[in-house]
Amino acid sequence: MADELTPDELLDKIDYGAPSGDWMDTTKSVQIRPGMYCYAAKAESVETLGLPNARPWNPIEEDWKLPDNWQQILHEGIKERLERFRTFKIFMDVCVRCGACADKCHFFLGTGDPKNMPVLRAELLRSVYRNDFTTAGKILQKIPGGQRLAGARPLTIDVLKEMWYYFFQCTECRRCSVFCPYGIDTAEITIMARELFNLIGLNIDWIATPVSNCYQTGNHLGIQPHAFKDMLEFFVEDLEDITGVDCTPNFQKKGADILFITPSGDVFADPGTYTCQGYLILFKYLKDKYGLDVTWSTYASEGGNFGFFTSHETMKRLNAKMYAEAKRLGVKWILGGECGHMWRVIHQYMDTMNGPADFLEVPVNPITGTRFDNAASTKMVHITEFTADLIKHGKLELDKGRNANRIMTFHDSCNTSRGMGLLDEPRYVIKNVCDNFYEMPPNTIRENTFCCGSGSGLNAGENMELRMAGALPRATALKHVHEKYGVNTLGTICAIDRAALSTLCEYWVPEVEVAGIHELVGNALILPGEKERTEDLRMEPLPGCEEEE
Amino acid sequence: MTQKYLIPLAAVFLLFLVAYTGAGAGLGWFFGIVFPYLAVLAFLVGFVVKVTGWAASAVPFRIPTTCGQQKSLPWIKQNCIDNPDTSSGVILRMLLEIFTFRSLFRNTKAAFNRNASNRITYSWEIFLWVGALAFHYAFLVVILRHFRFFTAPVPSCIQFLEALDGIVQVGLPGLFLSGVVLPAAALFLLARRLFDAKVRYVSQAADFFPLFLILGIAATGISMRYFTKVDIVGIKEMTMGLVTFSPVIPDGIGGLFYGHLFLVSILFAYFPASKLMHLGGVFLSPTRNMANNTRAKRHVNPWNYDVPIHTYQDYEDHFRDKMIEAGLPVEKKE
Q: In chain B, where do the E strands start and end?
C-alpha cells in the first residue's frame, strides 16, 4: 500500500536503465507483489453473467484453481481471436522492437520496471504466439536452443502468471500507440489478454463486481433504483439551498426529448457529485428557458462499461441497455456525460455492437438548431459537444466570476483524446466559465496525455503503489503548472479521473483539487429565478462572499 | 544475451562462406540459379500468404488511434491528418506514415531526475527517425539501382537515379551516396540495439539477424564495386539470364558475387517469416488506416452475434416494489 510507501520512497525506486541478461530468464522470479496487483474476482460476481470458472482464488497463492485444460482453452482462445481481430494478428506479427514506445508508458515512467515497456508487455504474449502459431517458431523449436533464438516460449503456468501480473498493469491508455510507426496498440493487446484470462476465470474483483452490479442493478456501484433517485434528490435539496431553485430531474420519462446517461460514480462520490449537480442545473436551465425535456434512467444508470475491461462480449452485454432504454422511452437521441472509457465504447463500439439505432433521430440541438452530423449514426452526443454548442450560440447566461477562485488546467482523458479526439470542446467550455486557464506542458496533454494511472478497472485500493507510480508523469506535469502559474484546480471529463486524480493530488500535489467541467458550468450558469448565490456547489463561499475575519 | 547477436552474426558469416566456397567447388548453378529462384518464389508466396492471412482476419470495430482534434462542431478546427474522418484524410495520414514515418517523428526521450524537483523531462529524440528514414530510403535507392542488372537497355529513370546517387562525383568508380548511407544507418541501428540498455533488453535474435544480413549484403556489394573488381559483364549476362528465364553461369564471376547473391536470396526467403513484414503490415494496421467516423457512419462487425442481456423487464420484475414505493414510473403496476 502506498500508505506505507511515501512519495520519496517511491521515487527512490525509479531507474530507467534496463537490466542486462534475457528478460525471459526472469519469468520464474516474477513475484506478484502486494500494492501492485488487484484482488481476484469474487465467485458470485463472475457467476452473475455466467462467465467461466467462477471460484474463490488468490493470485498470491501457488494454486490458481484453473481448469485442467487451461492451456488448450487459451491456445484455442488465441487462435479464435487471431481470426476475429486483424489488429491482434498484425500486432503479433509486425513489431520490430524499435523501442520508440519504451518510455511512453506512465507505468514504465513511474516504476522503471522494464516489463512495463509497452513493447515488452506485448512480447509476453507475442513470445507465446511465436511458439505456437508462427512458421519460424515451429521450425526453430526443433533444434536445440532454437526456441530461445526464435524468442519463443511455451505457455507455462509461470508465463501465465507473469502475463496476468503485467496485463493488469496496463490501463489501455493507448499512449504508446501514438508513437508506434505501425500504430501497434498495446491497449488492444491488453484487451485480448484480458479476454483470454476471462476464459479461465482470471478477472480481478474491481472489474468483475462492477460488471456484475451493472448487469443486475443498472450501474457499477450497485445503486438500486430507489436509492439512485434518493441520491439525486439529495443533490436537489443541496441545490435548492445554494440556488433557491428546484432542479428536480425526470426519471424514466417516456417521450422526453433526450435520455441522459452518465457514469454512476458521479452520483456516488465527491468530487463527481458536484459535476452531477452541474448537470442538474444545466438541464433545469434548458427546461425553464427553452422547454428542453431531459430524462434520466435508473435502468440505464451507468455510462461507464467495465465490460470493456473484461471482454468484447461482456462490453456488448452491458452497453445494450443504452439503446434499449432509449427505445423504450421513445426519446429522440442520447446525451452522454463526462466519462473516459464510456466514450471510447460509445464512439468506437456501440453502434457496431448494438446498433443500428434507427429508432432514434439524428441528434439536433433544438435550441441552437445545430445538427450533430458527427453523431448521425450512433445518435449519442458528448455533453461538452452539447454545452460548447450552446455557449457558442450564446444560449447560456454565465457568470464567470463565480469560478474566479479557480486557476484551472485540464487533464485530457486517455480515451476521449486517443480514442475519439475530443480535445477542444472541453477547453472551449472551460474558457467560457472560468477566466484562469493554463495548459500543462505539450508532451503531457492532448494526444500525448498521460493516464491517471488507475484506468481500465485498476482504480482499486489494494494496488495503490502501482496507481501512484503510474500517476507520477501526470503529477509531475501538474506540479509544474501549480508551481509556475498557481494552478489549484485540475479539470477533467472522466469519472474515473475524478476519483483517481483526487487520490493522485493528495499523494503528489496536495494543493490541487479536481473538478469536472460541468461543476464549473453549474457554478457559472445563472438559473432563471435564482437567489443571489453565496456558495459554490461544494458549499464553499463564492469569490467575494468569503466571511470577513 | 550475447548469443542473441553472436549467433546471427556467425550465421551471416557462415552463409557467406557456404556460397563463397560452394561456388568455387562447382556449385555455381545452385547458388546462382536454383537458390535465387527458390528464394524469390518463397518471398512472393510467403508475402502473399502473410498479407492475405491478415486480410482474412476480420476488422470488427473501427478503432483508429486519434492523434488530434476530432471533427465535431463546424467551428472547431479538425486535425484532418491525425484524426481523419474521410478516406482522403486517411490516405494522407497513411502516405505520411509510410513515406515520412510520421509517428516515429514524434519520438521523445524521457529522463527522470531524482533531486529536489523530481522532474520527468521529455526531449525530442530525432535520431531514431533520422536513422530509420536514412536506412529505408538508402535501401530503396540501392534496390532501384540494381534494376540496371535486370534490364537491357537500362531505363532512363534508373540512369537518372544513378546519376543523382552519384552526384558528389568522388573517386572512380564514382561514389554512390546510398552506398555510404545504407551501411552507416544500419550500423547506427545496430549500435542502438547493442548500446541502448532498453533496446538491448527487448531485442531478439530476429532483430539482429536482418541487420547483419543487410550489412553483409552491403559489405559484399561495396567490396565488388570499389575494391575487388568483378567481371561486371559476366554478372549482367547472368542476371539477365535469370530475369529472362534462360539462366546461364558465365565463367570467372568469382565467389564474392555468389556470396552477395546468396545473402540477398536468404533475405528474400527470410522476409515473409520475419518482422520485416512490417513492410506489408504498415498498410493494414487498423489503428492507422481507418477513418475516425464511427459515430457518423455505422461500421459493421461481420461476426457480431447476439448476447444475453438483462432487459428492462427483468430489471423491473426485480425491483418493481421498490420502484413503485419510490415513485418511479413502472410498466406493470403489480
A: 108-112, 120-124
